[in-house]
Specification:
With 288 residues, the chain is an alpha+beta fold. It is built from nine helices and six strands, in the order βββαββααβαααααα. The chain is elongated.
C-alpha cells in the first residue's frame, strides 16, 4: 500500500528528519539511507519498521542539517608528512636537484591533513530515530488507512457480484442435475447392453458420474470463503496473506465448478466469477 510520512526534531544543534514512503509489494522490502556515522543503526531501525509495516516496499531517508554540537577536528599526520618530505628529498637526489617540497604541495598530499569525526552517541541517536520513525509511520498510516478503506469497498462490491453469480449457478442446478441424470441413464443403458460388464462395474460408473456432477460442496465452500474474506476486511490487523490464501481457495473452487458444470449458461456465470476473483487478487496483492 502507498503512503508517506515525515517527522523531525532538533538534537544537539541540528535538525534530524526521517522520511518514509511505501509502495505496493507482496513482501516487506525496506531500503534505508542513513548519514555515514549512523550506518550501524540500519538494522535496529529496519527491525522496528517491520512490525508496523509487515508488507510493502519501504524507502527510508534520514537527514541531518544545521550546526552540530560536537564538531569534527582537523588533524595533522606528522609521521606521514615526514615520509613525504624524505621521499621528496630522495627524488631530488635522484634527479640531481636541491629543490625542496613546498608547504603548499605537502598540505595537499593525501592523508597529511584529515578530519577526525567527533564520537557519536549512537544509543541516544538510536532512541531518537526510532521515535521519529514511529511518528512518521503514524502519518503514513493515515494515508494507508484511507487507501485501504477504498480497496476494501471495492473487494466487497466484487464479492457481492460473485455471490449473485453463485446464486444463479445454484438456481440452475436442478435443471443441470436432470440433464446429468439423462446422461447417466444413457450411460447405464450402454453398459447394460454389454454382457461383459458386471453389475459391480455399472455401480462404479454410476457413482463416478454422480460424483462428477455434484457441485454442492464447491458452492458451500465458496460461500464460506467469501464470508471469511468479508470478515477479514473488517479486521484491524494485517490480513493480506490470509486474504491471498482465501483467494487461492476460492479460485480453486471456481475451477472445479467449471469442470463439473459443462453447460453454456452456467459456464458464462463461472467465467464472470473468475474474472471478479482475478480483480480481487490484484487488490489483495496491495493489502498489508
Amino acid at each position: 500500500m502507498t503512503g508517506f510520512g515525515k517527522a523531525s526534531c532538533e538534537c544537539d544543534g541540528e535538525v534530524v528528519t526521517v522520511e518514509l514512503s511505501t509502495v505496493n509489494h507482496r513482501f516487506f522490502d525496506c531500503t534505508i539511507r542513513l548519514p555515514g556515522p549512523w550506518s550501524a543503526l540500519e538494522a535496529p531501525l529496519k527491525a522496528a519498521l517491520k512490525k508496523p509495516l509487515s508488507r510493502g516496499k519501504v524507502n527510508v531517508f534520514v537527514s541531518r542539517r544545521g550546526s552540530r554540537g560536537a564538531v569534527s577536528a582537523v588533524r595533522f599526520d606528522e609521521e606521514l608528512a615526514r615520509q613525504y618530505v624524505a621521499a621528496a628529498r630522495e627524488l631530488g637526489k635522484l634527479m640531481g636537484t636541491g629543490e625542496a617540497m613546498s608547504l603548499d604541495v605537502l598540505a595537499q598530499l593525501d592523508g597529511v591533513f584529515y578530519l577526525e569525526e567527533a564520537e557519536e552517541d549512537l544509543e541516544k541517536t538510536s532512541d531518537m530515530l526510532l521515535d521519529l520513525a514511529e511518528k512518521a509511520v503514524g502519518q503514513l498510516d493515515e494515508m494507508r488507512l484511507s487507501e485501504g478503506a477504498a480497496m476494501a469497498r471495492d473487494i466487497r462490491d466484487r464479492l457481492e457480484v460473485v455471490r449473485r453469480s453463485v446464486d444463479v449457478v445454484e438456481e440452475r442446478l436442478p435443471a443441470l442435475n436432470e440433464l446429468y441424470a439423462q446422461r447417466l441413464r444413457g450411460r447405464i443403458e450402454e453398459l447394460s447392453g454389454d454382457t461383459s460388464i458386471t453389475e459391480e462395474r455399472i455401480a462404479i460408473e454410476v457413482a463416478l458420474l454422480a460424483d462428477k456432477s455434484d457441485v454442492s460442496e464447491e458452492i458451500v465452500r465458496l460461500r464460506s470463503h467469501m464470508d471469511q474474506m468479508t470478515a477479514l476486511l473488517d479486521s484491524e490487523e494485517p490480513v493480506g496473506r490470509r486474504l491471498d490464501f482465501l483467494y487461492q481457495e476460492m479460485h480453486r473452487e471456481a475451477n472445479t465448478l467449471g469442470v463439473k458444470t459443462r453447460n453454456g449458461d452456467v459456464a458464462s456465470e463461472i467465467l464472470g466469477i473468475k474474472a471478479e476473483l482475478e480483480k480481487i487478487r490484484e487488490q489483495i496483492q496491495n493489502i498489508e
